[in-house]
Amino acid sequence: MKVKKYIAGTMPEAMNLIRKDLGPDAVILNSKEIKHGGFFGLFKKQKIEVFAALDEEPFQSKKYKTIKNEEKQPSHIESNKGSNSNNKVLSELNYLKKLIEQQVGDKDKNYPPSYQIIHDYLLEQEVEESLVEEIIGNTMTFHNENNITPSIEKVLEHAKNELRMKLRDFSFEGITYDKKIVHFVGPTGVGKTTTLAKVAAKSMLEDKKHVAFITTDTYRIAAIEQLKTYAKILDIPVEIAYSNEDYKQAIDKFSGYDLILVDTAGRNFREDKYIKEMKETVQLEENTETYLVLSLTAKPKDLFDIQQQFKQLPIKEIVFTKLDETTQFGSVLSIMKAMNKGVAYITNGQDVPDDLMEPTPERIIDLIIGDFHNE
């Protein structure tokens, strides 16, 4: 079998390329939208990436592994005809398999099979256990009170409603420009500098704001150089603050700007000394707000330890990074509940300014439980 990748501006263009190259018997294996080209991750163009194959031995029985596509494929692709019905059948078979596993498996399960399946899935998604117990307990109570037969779809539906209720009182504002000086704090390696650049690009391109950078991360030369590179690409001024006095002077220098984004040092969050120094810096000016940046690839226990340390700071909201590097998203809800803070942004890649999501309750619910039928 010959397999080739094609990149084109539209699906019809890709189909023409495939027909010319592989002929009319080619089969589409996978397709998705991608960002292509650009300069230093900026201003990439939307393209279609298609994997096509030609079986050079068509009479030989073969077995192919389906590639899981993160993006919904266009409905007009011939190879996808009937895919919805196939997915439904596979989903039902998967559910039956899980029911059988529940019934012949551990006899000490706490819930009837449909509830237990959703319970276990939420735990696998790294939602904190006490929250999972509350969600399932409330779902069972609702079904009992309303005489609802607990099919998997009914359990899933009410579990989503429970998540909505837990998210309804949180904010999802992000930067509103009520404050001029914005600090990004968090442990090392979570992507603060890249997040800074994404927020700056969004503020400039969408909101037409004049933006400046300050970095207090003088412990890593690479971090300074990375911010300088972004500053040069975006045509944004940047100042390096080696002390609180330098920081104040930089603030004065940029007093005429709409927004000053401050990149802070990402040292060991377990050091109380570091947190105290950070607290002094973020409280030097009144016209400030602070966002905690956390990586979704971190272990749940580490995330809880981090948020416990950073609770000492006046955190407005949380920024979650590296969405594209994990398949478990329950920590978003768990940390929100633990800190009683909303979410400002979620980042899902390295591209500036594209990979910056503005979260909503529905998006978070979809992250946590939307992929259930694909498991």
Summarize the structure in short.
By secondary structure, the chain is α/β, with parallel strands linked by helices.
Task: Please characterize this protein's 3D structure.
With 375 residues, the protein is of the alpha/beta class. The chain folds into 3 domains: 2-81, no CATH class; 85-167, no CATH class; 181-359, 3-Layer(aba) Sandwich (Rossmann fold). It is 42% helix and 18% strand. It has helices at 11-22, 83-104, 113-124, 129-145, 152-167, 192-205, 221-234, 244-253, 272-282, 300-310, 330-339, 361-369, and strands at 2-8, 27-36, 45-54, 181-185, 211-215, 238-240, 259-263, 288-295, 315-321, 342-347, 356-357. The strands form 2 sheets. It has an 8-stranded mixed sheet with strand order 6-5-7-4-8-9-10-11, with helices on both faces. Strands 1-3-2 form a 3-stranded antiparallel sheet, with helices on one face. Helix 11 links the parallel strand 9 and strand 10. The longest helix is centred in the N-terminal third of the chain and has 22 residues, at 83-104. The two termini are 29 Å apart.
CATH topology of the largest domain: Rossmann fold
CATH class of the largest domain: Alpha Beta
For the sheet with most strands, the description reads: 8 strands, mixed
The rough form would be described as flat
What integer is the average pLDDT? Answer: 82
| CATH-level-4 superfamily name of the largest domain | P-loop containing nucleotide triphosphate hydrolases
In total, the number of domains comes to 3
Give the H and E element order: EHEEHHHHEHEHEHEHEHEHEEH
